[in-house]
Amino acid sequence: MSSPTCSKTIAYEQFLKKIDQYWQAHCRQMIMIRSIFLFLDRTYVLQNSSIMSIWDMGLDLFRAHIVGHHIVQTRTVDGLLQLIERDRNGEAVDRQLLKSLLRMLSDLQIYQDAFERKFLEATDRLYAAEGQRLMEQRDVPEYLLHVEKRLSEESERFLHYLDQSTKKPVINLVEKQLLEQHVSHILQKGLDQLLHENRIADLTRLYTLFSRVRDGLKEQCAAFATYIKNTGKVIVLNIDTDPEKDKDMVQLLLDFKAKIDNILAVCFTSNEKFINAMKESFEHFINVRQNKPAELIAKYVDSKLRAGNKEATEEELERLLDRIMVLFRFIHGKDVFEAFYKKDLAKRLLVGKSASVDAEKSMLSKLKQECGGGFTQKLEGMFKDMELSKDFMLAFKQHMQNIDAPGGIELTVNILTMGYWPPYPPMEVHLPAEMVKLQDIFQKFYLFKHSGRKLQWQPTLGHCVLKAVFSGGNKELQVSLFQTLCLLLFSEGEEFTFDEIKDHTGIEINELRRTLQSLACGKARVLQKLPKGKDVNDGDKFLFNDEFKHKLFRIKINQIQMKETQEENTSTTERVFHDRQYQVDAAIVRIMKTRKTLSHNLLISELYNQLKFPVKPGDLKKRIESLIDRDYMERDKDNPNQYLYVA
Amino acid sequence: MNQGWTAVATWHWVANDENCGICRMAFDGCCPDCKLPGDDCPLVWGECSHCFHIHCIVKWLNSQQVHQLCPMCRQDWKFKE
């Protein structure tokens, strides 16, 4: 005997073995006795219901004299519990012995009273302690692995020796003590990390385990939503307001969405509640920052639809567009998207930079499906204008063959219907005589075909192909109309000052500065500037660069865009807000017209129902004030919170 | 040397008035039944040189039982070719 505890356990085990032996012997002997008195058992005993059968009497005697004895029973049950605890701790125990004794208890019908209650208590204590301890010691994935192991061990135990009737309460206890008690703790400690590191297996385990406990999935769903909101907010808000990061926002959002979708499908069995939570969360965080995400999505689409984007095949592009549409669906201010998309679409169409008509049309039909025909009407109108222009140019070419026109220049005109396209600021420039003449011929022809109209030329949008002769060989230059005007000057003279160019071309001064910068300070320097430098100043002189060399024959010289996009950007946003004002006004009048009188709060809440874009209550108030000023409605004289509609 | 020129122009209506005399909407806009201005909602001129949205004047003419008169000057309405 090495130690008292040890001796005690051995004593328990020996005691249990002894009891088992007695029980086995008792059973054998009872069977023998029953066989001998079989006739008695089958006739007299059966006929008299007050007398127990021989077997039952045997059990009764064993219960009354041996197991019923207080000390024997406690020692047996305690011994059993100790043995089971050792089994749970992973020690090898005599399972046969356990099984036999537990069978004995059931046969004696004292399993529930003497054993089960105590057993459940012990289980409860054990796992409560274990849950507490391990939650602190282990990190979440390990803990979950452990819980999974425990659950399978416990079910296995019922196959080996425990009575099936106890299975449900025991499993419930394990779930309760190891999971239910710790649900929020586990989620708090581990979910974000698991999601962040995209640990598919661990997340699957978490989901399966939590689906076993009450409210487990509900809490997990809530935590999942919070994670999406927080992560998404970081992407969208871009706290440093670093424009470089804004550029990546849409790509990041798409990647994030793909990751979450994958987790939903693989780990969370596409649970509808989770999917809805995901959608709500996306909608929430993407609208935390107003307007910018919509703008960036529009720009992202533009970058994908623009020519020269060869990274994707048609099918990939199509799939990408579908994914973008999913993000788009979450956006509240769809009008912002439309404005930017329209602006970019206009550029693509007019400069002929659209990668594929099919992709454009498919994007358009997606938008139409998503937001209805009204949303895309103008965009469709733009495509129609392009087609009408093409047809009209055919007619014009024929017309040109019949008249005596200044040769050399091939004119193509895109004729735009005012309302469809983004507004362009009118600008006057001095064209060379031959171009003016050509323009007049076209204008006359157009007005002859369409009476009652007026044409307004948009020099900002025109572009040309120029043939230039350098000492290093002939080149074709693809340039904007402004660049053309500057370059054409140099076929008349060698050297011009900034002011001379300004007077000759009539281009607005800032515009001209950018244009000359692109020609003399950009990548392809077809002009030389004196003195040299990055910026164009008023006194600078410009020379034709005869030495110009380039490996390509056809060269495109980009306008310098930086500042322009900044201006365009604010003007586009302003335009959207302006349009929104009208929509708010219309909605207020519509509501007041049907209701006649309405309190301020009710009006505001109805407005929020009708308006499809985010507005601040303060802005709504301003619109109401403005409508009161314009006599569309008035305040009730007795109650300033009540509005009356003025017919 | 200039070889090819792709120009861009926008067109709008030239009418002797700002608004359509029937619907009072701007000529640069469209009639109340249309959503978008442009080719889908064109203007027409009468021989009296008054000008309306085609949808507006057609509606007006259909509502006239006996004589079809210009709503502005009460002369016989004839479309100007």
From TrEMBL, chain A:
GO BP: DNA repair; proteolysis involved in protein catabolic process; ribosome biogenesis
Segments forming domain Cullin family profile: 292-520
Domain of life: Eukaryota
Signal peptide: none
Pathway(s) of this molecule: Protein modification; protein ubiquitination
Gene3D superfamilies: Cullin Repeats, Cullin, Chain C, Domain 2, Winged helix-like DNA-binding domain superfamily/Winged helix DNA-binding domain
Pfam families named in the record: Cullin, Cullin_AB, Cullin_Nedd8
Name of this protein: Cullin family profile domain-containing protein
UniProtKB/TrEMBL annotation, chain B:
Pathway(s) where this gene product acts: Protein modification; protein ubiquitination
Keywords: Cell cycle, Cell division, Metal-binding, Mitosis, Nucleus, Ubl conjugation pathway, Zinc, Zinc-finger
SUPFAM superfamilies on file: RING/U-box
CDD domains documented for this protein: RING-H2_APC11
Keyword Membrane applies: no
One GO BP: cell division
Subunit structure: The mammalian APC/C is composed at least of 14 distinct subunits ANAPC1, ANAPC2, CDC27/APC3, ANAPC4, ANAPC5, CDC16/APC6, ANAPC7, CDC23/APC8, ANAPC10, ANAPC11, CDC26/APC12, ANAPC13, ANAPC15 and ANAPC16 that assemble into a complex of at least 19 chains with a combined molecular mass of around 1.2 MDa; APC/C interacts with FZR1 and FBXO5. Interacts with the cullin domain of ANAPC2. Interacts with UBE2D2.
Protein family membership: Belongs to the RING-box family.
Summary of the function given for this chain in its UniProt record: Together with the cullin protein ANAPC2, constitutes the catalytic component of the anaphase promoting complex/cyclosome (APC/C), a cell cycle-regulated E3 ubiquitin ligase that controls progression through mitosis and the G1 phase of the cell cycle. The APC/C complex acts by mediating ubiquitination and subsequent degradation of target proteins: it mainly mediates the formation of 'Lys-11'-linked polyubiquitin chains and, to a lower extent, the formation of 'Lys-48'- and 'Lys-63'-linked polyubiquitin chains.
Listed name of the protein: Anaphase-promoting complex subunit 11
Organism, scientific name: Sinanodonta woodiana
